[in-house]
Amino acid sequence: MFTPIHIPQVGITYKQPIGLFINNEYVKSKDGSLIDTFNPATGEKITSFYAAGTADIDEAVQAARNAYEDVWSKTTPSERSELLWKLASLVERDKKLLAAMETLDSGKPYHSNALGDLDQIISVTKYYAGVVQNLTQGKQIPVSHDKFAVTFEVPYGVVGQVVPWNYPLAMASWKMQGCLAAGNTIVIKPAENTSLSLLYFAQLFVEAGFPPGVVNIVPGHGAQAGTALAAHPDVDKVAFTGSTKVGQAVMEAAGKSNLKPVTLECGGKSPAVVFEDAEIEQAAEWCALGIFYNSGQNCTANSRIYVQESIYEKFLQEFKAQAAKAWKFGAKRDPFDEECTLGPVISEVQQKRVKSYIEHGVKEGLNIETLHELPADVKGFFVQPTFFTNVPQSSKLNREEIFGPVAVISTFKNESEALKLANDTNYGLASAVFTQNIGVATRFVRDIKAGTVWVNSSNDEEISVPFGGFKMSGIGRELGEAGLGSYLQTKSAHFNLSVSAHKL
Ligand SMILES: NC(=O)C1=CN([C@@H]2O[C@H](COP(=O)(O)OP(=O)(O)OC[C@H]3O[C@@H](n4cnc5c(N)ncnc54)[C@H](O)[C@@H]3O)[C@@H](O)[C@H]2O)C=CC1
Ligand code: BAL
């Protein structure tokens, strides 16, 4: 159930679990099927791990159900808090190892990205360990002299979670820590191309003292394991992060099976709007980060940048300079190298997908600019940082989520046009506005249809602040107190104090 993996760049050799994690044990999948996982920076195979099928999902859900009914539902918030504190200290201990796994398996730069993901995971774990200690939700409602009611916030029970590959452990932690704190048990499916770190993380739950069955990790293909989880009649709630198309399928499966509630964090086509009075250097730096960080594989990436006409040329120059300086493959194109801030995209499929958008722009005769040449025989799934300029608003480059290091930069004349362009999308996850004018900024915050608005920054989310989308970007919220609330439901109890018979 374990295979040795050596990561020479950080001098680490460790034992990688390759089994499904059910009831605090690693087990083979029932049909023995495996998934190969690859290093996106080289294209080479790292290892294989077991893939869950429908029967394995049934077993994991049963384990989670037993753990919920027999043990976890009887724990107090402070007992759960204590386990989360222990978990946080174990993540701190193993931070470098976990970050190295993320880099190896997802290609994200170790120094600039993966270590930061781990810092966020430690923070989110401590945050929910703290928040749950103050879990005092619920109300007493006076109804009449002889009657009062009380509401309780109670867990759902067994929660199914499906997470993507762009932030493998971080997206899992955004979901799991709040869910456990609220008192639910979990069956979680990592993405097929980034399951290694979560499989390892499972051991930290055991070491921290989480009872068997509270956390179950079932890597597998979306169409089989993901569908089985979303459609399972004994799963009480499902939470998903990934594409909008799959989010719709998850919602449909949830509705058709047992009407389980869903939380969806889906795609985005987030605008950044730069007004002529903005600090241009600052705006360019944030906008470059907002599209090139994590090679653009962010649901909140500011992939549409709108700049006021009067500062357009100046902004472009500044954007190019800032982007070229900050976002680099590094001489060795090795995400473990300190110089590398721009890794490969996750897979050959994703590389082809992103490149097809670039080719579409070229075919349409749009102005294209690229940074940092790549050799023709480059190994690994690298994509050059790219931006297009004269792009019609109707172009698919402006309408579809590319999920790679590709931006569209366009102009606007005035405030009302800027808002109209920014809102012209089916998505509504995030947005950014750059201006020194408090009135312009505040009107933008009021009128933009997006779950997050950054004023004079971009993509710097905070774990204490709710995160989630409007429109086709999703349903529900993660992070912050809302991230705990997403895993609680209200129960109302009516208390009759009267001793006489009820009168109609
Ligand atoms: N919002 C976000 O953070 C993410 C958005 N995406 C978007 O999706 C595009 C395609 O990437 P994919 O890897 O194909 O994303 P995806 O949406 O297929 O994958 C995300 C997760 O959903 C699972 N999944 C796939 N089909 C499922 C189903 N029918 N039922 C339940 N779970 C299922 C996958 O196994 C994975 O764990 C990207 O180019 C990007 O636009 C992808 C990953 C993350
Ligand atoms: N920045 C984490 C959320 C996401 O982009 O998927």
Automatic annotation (TrEMBL):
Oxidoreductase keyword on record: yes
Tree of life domain: Eukaryota
Keywords noted in UniProt: NAD, Oxidoreductase
InterPro entries for the chain: Ald_DH/histidinol_DH (IPR016161), Ald_DH_C (IPR016163), Ald_DH_CS_CYS (IPR016160), Ald_DH_CS_GLU (IPR029510), Ald_DH_N (IPR016162), Aldehyde_DH_dom (IPR015590)
Residues at the active site: E265
Domain Aldehyde dehydrogenase positions: 26-492
UniProt protein name: Aldehyde dehydrogenase domain-containing protein
Protein's organism: Zygosaccharomyces rouxii
